[in-house]
Amino acid sequence: MPVRFGIDVGGTFTDVVVQDEATGEVRFVKVDSTPKDQSIGILNGIRSALKKYGIDFMETAQLIHGTTVATNAVLEHEGGQTVLFTTDGFGDILEVARQIRPKLYDSWARKPEALIPRQHIFEVPERITYDGEVLRELDREAVAAQLDKLSRATQPDAIVISFLHSYKNPLHEQIVRDLVQSRFPDIPVFTSHEVHPLIREFERTSTVVINAYITPKIRWYLRRLASGLKEMEFQKDFYVMQANGGMISTGTAETKGMYTILSGPAAGVLGAGRVGKLAGFPNVITLDMGGTSIEIPPTGKRPRSKMMWEKAIFPNKRPQTITGSRPRDKRQPSGGQVCLSGLMTILYKYPMRAGEP
To answer: What does pTM read for this prediction?
Structure first.
């Protein structure tokens, strides 16, 4: 009997739902999550479901799961060590942002702590105008000097390149990318024109930074999960939920980890919306309480586009803001779509997962 697996990974429990494609019957098991390596909890849950219901894993038609790896990495600042190459004079872009204060009249208000510390941001002499014209040629010698400085300063897990107006003309980003890759061939490099090629330098830069920051962790996790499934002789592809309610392949998730931010709550919101409609309530407010965070997403009409996403409020009053903009082509997901999917309106972060000692 062909079955479909739907798996939700939380900070405390991992839920495995199995649906019989022929009859529509739904069965489920709940196991403890393994925060240090979420793939272990998933594999334990699958084995438990196979044993409990006598299912042949080879008859699985589809396996989809939602994960909190990316969300927790951003909230708890547990992503990979990331460095940024940006246009000369814009080294403070992550700190300055849009100059929006958390509290307008609070002289002691503190902005979110940047995912990349200032000493790991390297400025490069170059300038491209808004219409794509090269105003200042890229200084390759300065790039080489900055790469020397980087090699002495740290060994990053990911490198980001984000120059002004690269969405219009990516030439300088492409040149620096090639130089970086020739110098550091084993370190993943992310350019803003490839990850999020839209206007507004802060939104574009912050989005590619978040992607680079979480992708190494997502990649490690997905490869661990793929290895475990292979040992169980599962030969098909498995998929990851996106915050916009769709799903992506593991190959895409390994390079665009930002799509999986809020992956965990997304399926729950869709399910709650469906149940609400069947019950005659098209507009409902849902609450998803887990071991790490509480999400309170609304369902109903799609919210209007906006440039700044809501905040994750930390207990110590230091918010982490995730920002972005909507893609022009609604069929093509982007970092901004992840940030502005509208699935979340309030997200409170707790200092430790309930399932973690």
So the answer is: 0.80
Backbone dihedral angles phi then psi of residue 80, each to the nearest 5 degrees: -80, 155
d(CA 32, CA 15): 9
The contacts found for 35-41 with CB under 8 angstroms, 24 or more apart, are 35/11, 35/353, 35/355, 35/356, 36/356, 37/221, 37/224, 38/9, 38/14, 38/67, 38/68, 38/69, 38/221, 38/225, 39/221, 39/224, 39/225, 39/228, 40/228, 41/9, 41/14
CA distance 314 to 317: 5
**Residue 354, amino acid:** A
Task: Determine contact, residues 309/100, Cβ cutoff 8 Å.
Answer: no
Task: Give φ, ψ of 133 to 5 degrees.
Answer: -80, 140
In angstroms, the Cα distances linking 319 to 91, 285, 314, 338 are 21, 23, 6, 19
Element (H, E) at 43: helix 38-53
Tell me the pairing of strands 189-191 and 158-162. parallel
The residues near 325 (Cβ < 8 Å, ≥ 6 apart) are 198, 199, 200, 203, 305, 307, 336, 340
**Are 208 and 196 in contact, with CB atoms under 8 Å apart?**
yes
Please name the residue that has the structure tokens 């170059």.
Answer: 126
CA separation, residue 331 to residues 208, 244, 337 (Å)? 20, 11, 10
pLDDT tops 70 at residue 301: no
User: Which of 76, 88, 64, 164 lies closest to 115, judged by CA?
Assistant: 76
Torsion region of 317: left, alpha or beta (phi above 0 gives left; psi -120 to 50 gives alpha):
left
Residues 64/247, Cβ–Cβ less than 8 Å: yes
> What SS3 class is residue 73?
helix
Q: What is the pLDDT of residues 33-90, one digit of tens each?
A: 998 899 999 999 999 999 999 999 998 999 999 988 888 888 888 899 999 999 999 9
Within 8 A by CB and 6+ apart from 132, the residues are 165, 168, 169
DSSP-derived letter for residue 119 is G
